[in-house]
Automatic annotation (TrEMBL):
GO terms for biological process: glutathione metabolic process. Residues 9-555 form the Hydantoinase B/oxoprolinase domain. Transmembrane segments: none annotated. This is Hydantoinase B/oxoprolinase domain-containing protein. GO terms for cellular component: cytosol. It comes from the Eukaryota. Pfam families: Hydantoinase_B. InterPro entries: Hydantoinase_B (IPR003692), Oxoprolinase-like (IPR045079). GO terms for molecular function: 5-oxoprolinase (ATP-hydrolyzing) activity.
């Protein structure tokens, strides 16, 4: 191994940083193109990275931050288990939190890269993907009611999924289908076809990385490649040391922050910076004990959240790698919910608790106000054990839903965005409604949910899904009790809420109820709380209101007016419009005919998308991907996305399409929005159009 103290050439250093990241990006493209599941192929819930022979992270592309900081734990664990017994053609698989995993749906595939001449391991390529179902007590393998790791699906500590070039299909199916079904109340994988295909895609992605590494070595030589691998890691280390020194000089060397989960569990952090060395100790002493639930987070998740924070606060463009954590010592008390026992349930720790860790670290550094503080994890599906105990194949769908990001010292928060540890896309409505028995009725910004301040927090979103078939629906979310806090005098963001709109029981072909009051026949709105699982019937809705981000600074006069009038839409732009230059002001994009965007039916070829937030400028936080939200005027939001068979455009400027609604479509909308009871529907078609027009605020219709 070359001398790591040898000074690097700056140009070559930049070149290798980009070449290493290019390897990870190419792996990601291969994985996306060859996967078949919605969650990996469409939502991009996966990560690919390159690791050194010692298992340290070398470089990654901007995939899912919570994956990237934790994957090195998995690589190092497999190195201890298999040592030097690995040979070319071997590929390893693991998802256990005790083996460097995050939660069970996240399966890591690890491939060693061998030197073609010496036969020694010179790198590792690895990919981690979130698979929509790996068994467990509920479809989606993210059960809100889990209290043990065995409730959450198949746990695999170490498995050679490819041995000497041969894919072990029988062993895989035993681990994913048969083993978890032996646990009481649990099922094996409900859709082994998708999971097996996606795992093969991960193996292919790793192989693509191996090919590119060998090509890089042939071009520059192994010694030079390893040398600059070390230089890149040292550069990241030095950048973090400089950050800590500068912060200690300006703000002192002792920091502290505290926050609480919605169940009251405290998360405590004390940071002490050594200004001379540029190092720091992050001490989580005082954090609450292990939780009888699934908010426990493995230590790999804690390290991943911390490395993300340090990388995000740097003003230099470097790959996220292991060097970012070299100056930092992380202390976590045993058996707290950030270092739980071996069998603790952890499925929500990876997606909810991790967000709160990030909030606490950024709060200690006074970097920005709190963001939405969770990922609003929604799962629904069918399948599992039948009455005879046999596992029936089914399916599961999983998505995370955006919210508002926190404001900072000189920027507004962003609305409708995935923040911090996640970077996935929202499920596309065309794919969602085509592949699953659901209808998306609304997906809009939740205006006014961001905290007010000199700089306002971003707004959350509203997502309304109707279920067309009886199925199990689960939600895992935080910030339903405690608001995302503001900073420096800024106001808090609004809490989230999960509402079940339950249809009358006679809709389910059950025995009729004795109903004395007509009002009892109307749908009921039920708050199911932050963590719940519900067997929803045909026609039921789940309406998710996600939290807003906290504001920054004391509001100035006129700030609220700005917030209401132009905070979000005035900076929006068409996702497919001509690219703007960096730091350009963003304005609404007109349609080709010069009109402002109106409601559009959600078909791919007619759908107008927007990007809210900062756009391409120096305030954009790395890794954050804006969800695509249709730009639809408030009064027509539900109308435009209600699953109609007729496209609408430039409405209400023209009533042409409105006139073309069939009587059946009119009845469907009127009854859906409870404008009149079915028995009171007028026979005259014109009267029905008038009822709907008044509801939509169309005063030009008679």
């Amino acid at each position: 191994m070359p001398d790591k103290n040898k000074g690097p050439d700056p140009i070559t250093l930049t070149l290798f940083a980009n070449r290493f990241m290019g390897v990870a990006e190419a792996m990601g493209r291969m994985l996306q193109q060859t996967a078949i599941s919605t969650n990996i192929k469409e939502r991009l819930d996966f990560s690919c990275a390159l690791f050194a022979p010692d298992g340290d992270l070398v470089a990654n592309a901007p995939f899912i931050p919570i994956h990237l900081g934790a994957m090195s734990f998995a690589v190092k664990y497999q190195m201890k288990v298999h040592g030097k017994t690995l040979k070319p053609g071997d590929v390893l698989m693991s998802n256990s939190p005790s083996a460097g995993g995050s939660h069970l749906p996240d399966i890591t595939i690890i491939s060693p890269v061998f030197d073609e001449s010496s036969g020694e391991i010179i790198f590792f390529t690895a990919s981690r993907g979130h698979h929509a179902d790996v068994g467990g007590i509920l479809p989606g393998s993210m059960p809100p009611t889990s209290v043990s790791i065995f409730d959450e699906g198949a746990e695999i500590t170490s498995f050679k999924i490819v041995n000497d070039g041969v894919f072990d299909q029988d062993g895989l199916r035993e681990l994913l289908c048969e083993k978890p079904a032996k646990y009481p109340g649990s099922s094996g994988c409900r859709n082994i076809r998708d999971v097996e295909s996606d795992l093969k895609a991960q193996v292919a992605a790793n192989h693509k990385g191996i090919q590119l590494i060998h090509a890089l070595i042939k071009e520059y030589g192994l010694q030079t490649v390893h040398e600059y691998m070390i230089h890149i890691r040292n550069n990241a280390e030095q950048s973090v040391r400089n950050l800590l020194r500068d912060f200690a000089k300006k703000h002192g060397n002792r920091l502290e922050a505290r926050d609480y989960l919605d169940d009251g569990s405290p998360m405590n952090l004390r940071i002490e910076i050594d200004e001379a060395s540029g190092s720091a100790v992050f001490d989580f002493e005082g954090t609450g004990p292990e939780i009888r639930g699934n908010l426990n987070a493995p230590i790999s998740v804690v390290h991943s959240a911390v490395i993300y924070c340090m990388r995000s606060m740097l003003n230099v463009d470097i790959p996220l790698n292991a060097g970012c954590l070299v100056p930092i010592e992380i202390k976590i008390p045993d058996l707290c919910f950030l270092h739980p026992s071996r069998t603790a349930a952890v499925c929500a720790g990876n997606v909810l608790t991790s967000q709160r860790i990030v909030d606490v670290v950024l709060k200690a550094f006074s970097a920005c106000a709190a963001s939405q503080g969770c990922t609003n994890n929604l799962t629904f599906g069918m399948g599992g054990k039948d009455k005879d105990g046999k596992v029936q194949q089914g399916w599961g769908y999983y998505e995370t839903i955006a919210g508002g990001s926190g404001a900072g010292p000189d920027w507004h928060g962003t609305s409708g965005i995935h923040t911090h540890i996640t970077n996935t896309r929202i499920g596309d409505v065309e794919i969602l409604e085509r592949r699953y028995p659901v209808l998306l009725h609304e997906f809009s910004l939740r205006k006014g949910s961001g905290g007010v301040g000199e700089y306002n927090g971003g707004d959350g979103v509203i997502r309304d899904i109707e279920f067309l078939h009886e199925m199990q629906v689960s939600i895992l979310s935080e910030r339903r009790v405690l608001h995302p806090y503001g900073m420096a005098g800024g106001g808090p963001g609004a809490c989230g809420q999960n509402i079940w709109i339950k249809q009358p029981r006679e809709e389910y072909d059950l025995p009729a109820l004795e109903i004395e009051n007509e009002d009892e026949r109307r749908p009921r709105m039920i708050n199911i709380g932050g963590k719940a699982t519900v067997l929803m019937g045909r026609g039921d809705h789940l309406v998710i209101h996600t939290p807003g981000g906290g504001g920054w600074g004391t509001p100035k006069e006129g700030g609220s007016e700005l917030k209401e009038q132009c905070k979000h839409i005035a900076r929006a732009r068409n996702f497919n419009s001509t690219a703007v230059c960096d730091n350009a002001e963003l304005r609404p994009v007109l349609l080709p005919n010069g009109e402002m965007p109106g409601p559009l039916f959600p078909a791919t070829f007619r759908r107008l998308r927007t990007m809210g937030g900062q756009g391409l400028n120096d305030l954009t936080v790395m890794y954050q991907l804006v969800d695509h939200i249709p730009y639809i005027l408030d009064d027509q939001q539900r109308f435009a996305s209600g699953g109609l068979s007729v496209p609408f455009r430039a409405f209400p400027e023209t009533l042409r399409d409105f006139e073309e609604l069939t009587p059946r479509e009119l009845d469907r909308l009127i009854l859906r929005y409870q404008l009149v009871a079915r028995k009171d529907l007028p026979e005259d078609i014109g009267a029905r159009r008038t009822i709907l027009a008044r509801h939509l605020g169309i005063t030009t219709y008679p």
